[in-house]
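Quick log. Single chain, no ligands specified.
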Amino acid sequence: MPGEYLPPVEESAPPLSPGARFAVTLHRLTPTAVLTPFLIAVNVAVWIAMLVGGANPLSPDTDVMRAWGADFGPLTANGEWWRLFTSNYLHFGAIHLFCNMFALWQIGALVERLLGRSGFLITYVISGVAGSLASLWWQPYAVGAGASGAVFGVYGALLGFITRESGTIPREVLSRLRSGGVTFLGYNLIFGLSIPGISLAAHAGGLAAGFLCGALLSHPLTLQGASTRVRRSLALATLGAVGIAAAISVWPPPFDFEGELQTYRVVAGEANDAYNAAASRLRAGSIDVKEFARVIDADIVPKWRAEREGMSRWPEFPSRARGYVSLLDQHALASQRFFELASEAARDGNGGKQALAAEEMKKLEALEKQMNAPPGE
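-> predicted structure:
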């Protein structure tokens, strides 16, 4: 009957403990938790497909991840919003995949039975997208991927549900669930702070979204309470879609750093080609030193001045990117100074200017060595 945990049992049957009654109730309301293994299978299948496509099984590079649909500000916020969803099913290697799927396996079936299948799936999707949005806001130039936002959302949903429905859950079960949830969150906070590259923003965004989903989907663990699951799930899906659409509609596109970096490389390449071509003509005697200087002044130095003027309007970058941007700025200044000094030395025949130009060239070589080094964490 509605309002009862279990149908009447025979008097001769041994009494059930509160924890056992709770477990039986969950199985009665949701007999099979099929979505948890399904979601795990989808994540594993995507990882296998990436391997077949040539990705490194332990550490796929960022270009591969972007090609498969990872979250990346200059792409996501410039129209490819589907990356907020697809990035939740990509992982940076087998270890990353295992950690997320193990966490989902530990808690997924329980939360699926608490929320019902439709509520669980909607919570998983909304939490994953919310985690992607949080990561995009915090680090718009980082390549983001992984199910951690969705998985944290599942734990958040558990906490949201038991916060609202603590009176319908046996005390010892409630204590165990709270302890397990807090332990998971504490461990992952320490783990995330100690290992570079883990997006705590995605964890926080997924957790917060999951908590709200769990609170909105909470209901008494009775037949009558479970009868409201579909209605609650539809309401949550609508609210989630509206919220995500609203966030997307007001989201400013991030600065296209990769595009600007490509432009910088083109400018540097064109300047070097023009200089080398003019130097070859000077050595061949087809132009004199005045014409050589004129080529530098007209075709090379203005490009570097314009590039540096454009760089002065670049926005403030996340702390991990500032070091590289600083190197670019120093490289642009040294490039401009080298070509100006080379022009003056050729035009005036000034040996002192030639020595200064040689010093700027050494700076350029040192800066390029740093810029081409593997990025540190």
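The CA atoms of residues 61 and 96 lie 14 Å apart.
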